[in-house]
Amino acid sequence: MKLNKVIATLLGAAMLTVSVAGCGGDSKQAGTSGSAGSGSDENKLVVYCPHPLSFINPLVEEFEKESGIKVEVVAAGTGELLKRVESEKANPLGDIFWGGSLSTMKPKANLFEPYKSANEDHIQEAFKNTEGSMTRFTDIPSVIMVNTDLIGDIKVEGYEDLLNPALKGKIAMADPSKSSSAYEHL
After folding, report:
1. Are residues 101 and 162 in the same domain?
2. Measured between alpha carbons, how far is 39 from 96 in angstroms, rounded to an integer?
3. What is the DSSP letter of 140?
4. Are residues 121 and 154 located together in one domain of the fold?
5. Co-location of 171 and 107 in the same domain
6. Which one of 6-15, 86-95, 120-129, 142-151 scores highest in mean pLDDT?
7. H/E segment holding residue 182
8. pLDDT tens-digit readout, 12-68
9. 18 and 103, same domain (yes or no)
10. Residue 94 located in a structural domain
11. pLDDT, tens digit (0-9, with 9 covering 90-100), for 166-185
12. Does residue 162 sit within a domain?
């Protein structure tokens, strides 16, 4: 995916500033209307993002206000968006992929252009961009949630406990082919 370096730096700075300070579904846009374009308009940035729109929209609005650059967000699951990037390899329609877990994105690193954020010096050593094309945005842990009203006496303190035959058919999770967080759990 080809990145316009100036626009990517501005978006990266805005996004990382927010993350450092605070830190699948159908295609939907935030900030503009229409579908993903060629990404060639210098005043428009097309962002592929699996984050919820309620999270994305305030950041996009702030970025647009501060930069004067219109943003079109194509929102879907990580797996779906990665398939889209792969199918567009010869003619990329997006500028930035914002989201996805490290273990999901690393095998696809060859689909992305090298980029180093202007904020890299402010990132903890363990989260630095060592791949060349993956700037960490946030460190969100994966969690197991247990409904204590339904679990009864079954002990669940970690992943191994989920192998208990008494839990067969009682565990819910997203499709790992579409959600990088579900993939992380596997």
Report:
1. no
2. 9
3. P
4. no
5. no
6. 86-95
7. helix 180-185
8. 433 433 332 222 233 334 433 334 444 456 789 999 998 888 888 999 999 999 999
9. yes
10. yes
11. 999 988 888 877 776 777 77
12. yes
Structure tokens at 157: 């303190």
Do 159 and 93 fall into the same domain? no
Closest-CA residue to 44 (of 29, 55, 26)? 29
What pLDDT shows up at residue 148?
87
Q: pLDDT by residue (tens digit) across 74-110? A: 999 888 999 999 999 999 999 999 988 777 888 888 8
Q: What SS3 state is found at 38?
A: coil
Kindly state whether residue 111 falls inside one of the protein's structural domains. yes
Q: For the chain, what's the residue count? A: 186
Give me the domain span that covers residue 70: 5-127
pLDDT confidence bin for 2, thresholds 50/70/90: very low
Together in a domain, 122 and 154: no
Helix (H, G, I), strand (E, B) or coil at 146: coil
CA dist 30 and 88 (Å) reads 21
Long-range contact set of residues 142-147: C-beta below 8 Å, sequence gap at least 24: 142/181, 142/184, 142/185, 144/185
Q: How are beta strands 96-97 and 70-75 bridged, if at all? A: unpaired
Residue 22 burial by Cβ neighbours in a 10 Å radius (0-12, 13-18, 19+):
exposed
